[in-house]
Amino acid sequence: MRLGLDIGGTKIDAVALDDDSAVLARVRVATGFGPDAVLRNAQSAALQAAEAAGGSASSLGSVGIGIPGVVDAEAGVVRHAVNLGLEELALGGILAERLGAPVRVENDVNAASLGAYHLLGLAGSMAYLNLGTGVAAGFVNDGAVWRGARGTAGEIGHIPIDPAGIRCACGQVGCLETVAGGGWVAHKWGGDAPLPVLEVFDRADAGDERAVALRAELIGGAAAGVRILILTGDVETVVIGGGISNLGDRLAEPVRASLDELARGSQFLGSLELSSRVRLVPAGEPVAAVGAALSGPRQNTKEPSWRS
Residue 176 in 3-state DSSP? Predict the structure, then answer.
């Protein structure tokens, strides 16, 4: 049995997979804050998922974890996961000892990339465009995650696209994240709506001019992200995921329309068939948890893993 844990800011989504990579069971628990709480709840989520699938800790073949922050996959260490209260934590080693199974730790976007690739039944090359609070990407080629020379492949949120734009938290001006990131959309929109991006889209549908302009900016930014990923990596498919992807076709169709408009003005872009290469992450599926399970040590036997 393979387990996958998607450790997010508020919840841990855990799944158990069988030998055919089908989901046997899924459980969710609160994440908590700080190293002690995160470790305790991750262990609990893993054991609950195993039991829900009809097994126990002794039946675990591997555990994969997707988590935000700076992840050293070889060392099993996560650093600077500030939303979880983790400055530096040897997550892989500690959980391997507690669970008695090999554990691999992966960046959450990379895990979601692998999960989307699997759940959509893709082949060849894919880029995963994560539109959440921020913007990032992950790459999968022939079923394997590609991390780059130093593990930072996919940080497209900090590519400047608007010289006249606003200053990003990274210090640059006009980064893609300041246009297409949900956190920045919420900041520009203001108010206290629990789902600010959804409110922007709803208000835009109702004719609110400020919402229409902000929605158009987000759509243009998402289209720019797709264009960047295809022009730099020539991937066969770009899958849009992250929290903003929950808008479904309200997001995907305008993004495709924006890409078609760009293609009409450029014979070169037209030849790339940009809009036809865009997919949405499967709605309601535990994409990151499944990807984490697939990234477990049994799936990467040539790479280091932490064992008890």
Answer: coil
Instruction: Give start-end residues of each CATH 3.30.420.40 domain in the chain.
Output: 2-108+292-299, 121-280
Which long-range contacts link 143-151 to residues 24+ away (Cβ below 8 Å)?
A: 143/114, 143/117, 143/118, 145/106, 145/110, 145/113, 145/114, 145/295, 147/73, 147/110, 151/71, 151/72, 151/73, 151/107
CA nearest to 242, candidates 1, 8, 49: 8
Q: What is the pTM of this model?
A: 0.90
**Superfamily per CATH, domain 2-108+292-299:** ATPase, nucleotide binding domain (3.30.420.40)
Summarised one tens digit per residue, pLDDT across range 132-166 is 989 999 999 999 999 888 777 888 999 999 999 99
Pick the CATH number of 121-280 from 3.30.420.40, 3.40.50.300, 3.40.1190.20, 3.40.50.10280: 3.30.420.40
Give pLDDT tens digits for 226-281.
Answer: 999 999 999 999 999 999 999 999 999 999 999 999 999 999 999 999 999 999 99
